[in-house]
Amino acid sequence: STMEETDREAVATAVQRVAGMLQRPDQLDKVEQYRRREARKKASVEARLKVQSLINLSVCGCHVMSITLNLTGNEELRKNHLHITFREVAGNHLIYIESKLCCKIFKSGLSHHQTQSVCFFSFFAFLSVPEIVRETQDLIERGELLQAHRKLMDLECSRDNLMYEQYRMDSKNTHDMNLIHTYFGDMQKLSEELAKQLWMVVQRSLVTVRRDPTLLVSVVRIIEREEKIDRRMLDRKKQTGFIPPGRPKKWKEKMFNILERTVSTRIEGTQADTRESDKMWLVRHLEIIRKYVLDDLLVAKTLLDQCFPTHYDIFNKLLNMYHQALSTRMQELAAEDLEANEIVSLLTWVLNTYKSTEMMGNSELSPEVDVNSLNPLISQNVVDQLLSKYMSTLTSNIIGWLRKALETDKKDWIKETEPEADQDGYYQTTLPAIVFQMFEQNLQVAAQINEDLKTKVLLLCLQQMNSFLTRYKDEAQLYKEEHLKNRQYPQCYVQYMIAVINNCQTFKESIISLKRKYLKIEMEDTLSSSHTSMDATLDIIAKEGCSSLLDEVFMDLEPHLNELMTKKWLMGSNAVGTICVTVEDYFNDFAKIKKPYKKTMTIEAHRRVVVEYIRAIMLKRISFKNAEERKEGAERMIKEAEQFRFLFKKLAAGSGEDTEGLCDIIEAIAEVIKLTDPSLLYLEVSTLVSKYPDIRDDHIAALLTVRGDASRDMKQTIIETLDQGPSQPNPNYVPIFKEITVPTLTVPKLLK
């Protein structure tokens, strides 16, 4: 048979070759060497034959598959088998490519043993690719990520080695390269699927680290493996120019990007409300951010840090991400159209809360977090813009609030019920309390931000207070004018005017207290002028108020004052008794005026009563006919001076006011009238003038007219002589006569 013939030919050829080798005796020593060489040749040939048969097998497979599909002509069959067919065809082609590579490797000098290993390892890898892909998919779905990744690495390694060899042998053959790529197409999807699982864990890392730290550690290990492969591939690219598709994967970089996005989303997602749904939306939003960030960083420091290699510097990286995300969010909020209170909430949070112990300054975060090295969340420029907007909004708000407060207060002035009294019984309205409560609130708010803003707000409050007091003064004046048109209205005019006067004292005290509480000593000077101006305005309001109240008293006293120094008075009218009762009655109300103003009122009332009394004398309504009348009139005057003295001593009780001096003037005038010896008249008058140097000639003329016994020449002589006399007034004497005018129409008639 043919086989036997071939065997015989082979034996004959072998004998011939051995004979050729052993022609000399010394060649017998090398028999062992020849045997080894021939064994190697034999193995080599066998390997070539195996490769050749593999190639033939794969090519045949391809052809058969192709012919089968074409011959059937069955479209349905073709569709059903297309994927499998392509997969098998591609697989066979790859075995074909692999075989070609093995031949080239073989030619390039690898031993037959190495070539066999490459060929058969790859061959079995190809046969099992679909199987491994399925297994890996299952592992991913079951969440066994480490094992899944191990299989994925094996697959990638097979593909990458095959591609690398193809590249080395024939880098221009893109057709074969694409075929390899296509055959391993599912592997790329696996890689993406695995990555998706990793990023889900990374996104939830702060939750995962508490529940299942092992899972997070596995993810970090996978990323580390990939980083290592990336480095290896990049090194090989430097040396050979070849890098497999999809490399470098840069999964570490992607992980940090995912973390960064997660942090941003976490910060943005904390705004639950809008201004329309909740006035406190911003306060709530900022508080949730504070809580979340602090909790997250504490977890990151205590738990997360342990799941990552040190060179990841995970805590500091996260800290920077949170800082950056917060900075972005705060800038977005700052750009919104914020109201004044919202600007304060934002700035307080940004400038104070953020670095406080409630957040970044929390003791559990140190020493890793150093608040002094944290950059500002928003630039100084943005802070200044916000502060400027706040101040302008606050200015218009304060003006509005003050106007509204005054309008509300004015409505009280016309009520038919008395104003409230404070704990000491002094009448008051709520105006000072409302105004200063508003100032206090705004100052406390400003103090949360910084000292500088607090000072600015204080200056603003006092500046607006200054303008407000001018309006207050005008309104009080209008109140008085309206009342004078009809004195029956408003019913409680006196009581509310007292409240206005008392408010002046409260305002003064409140300004001092506000400055003491909110102003640094060194800033005192900047406010002294506006403070002086406010005090002056308040004094004017109080003084005009007191004056208008005394006008009320004297309007009621007018008919009784008109009775003084008349025939009726001389005959024994009770005008002064009525005057005293009326004054005392009014002063029962005036007891509700606070001390500094009440004392002024008493002094002023006392002074005006005396002035009106002397004015009555100077009106020359009576001229005594004889010594008897003069004596009677003078004694009545002395008695009435004593009544006034008693009344005002009673009214001024405890105020330390000297009430003696004023009534002494009435008594001194009475002495001039009482004098019985006309030759001593000059002396008596000159004593009067030396005590009260503001007495004018017309006063003396009027006084002598009332006496009724001095001739025109005597008056002339006395007046002319007096002008040379020395004056020795009491140093405490306040001129009183200069206020008193003497009617001139009757002077010529009397002097005749």
UniProtKB/TrEMBL annotation:
Residue spans crossing the bilayer: none
Where does the record place it?
A: Cell projection, Growth cone; Cytoplasm, Perinuclear region; Golgi apparatus; Midbody
Q: Which InterPro entries match?
A: EXOC3/Sec6 (IPR010326), EXOC3/Sec6_C (IPR042532)
Q: Which GO terms describe its molecular function?
A: SNARE binding
Its chief place of residence is other
Alphabetically sorted, this entry's keywords are: Acetylation, Cell projection, Cytoplasm, Exocytosis, Golgi apparatus, Protein transport, Transport
Function comment: Component of the exocyst complex involved in the docking of exocytic vesicles with fusion sites on the plasma membrane.
Q: Which family is this protein grouped under? A: Belongs to the SEC6 family.
State how it assembles: The exocyst complex is composed of EXOC1, EXOC2, EXOC3, EXOC4, EXOC5, EXOC6, EXOC7 and EXOC8. Interacts with EXOC3L1. Interacts with BIRC6/bruce. Interacts with MYRIP. Interacts with SLC6A9.
- Put simply, this protein is called Exocyst complex component 3
What organism is listed for this UniProt entry? Spheniscus mendiculus (Galapagos penguin)
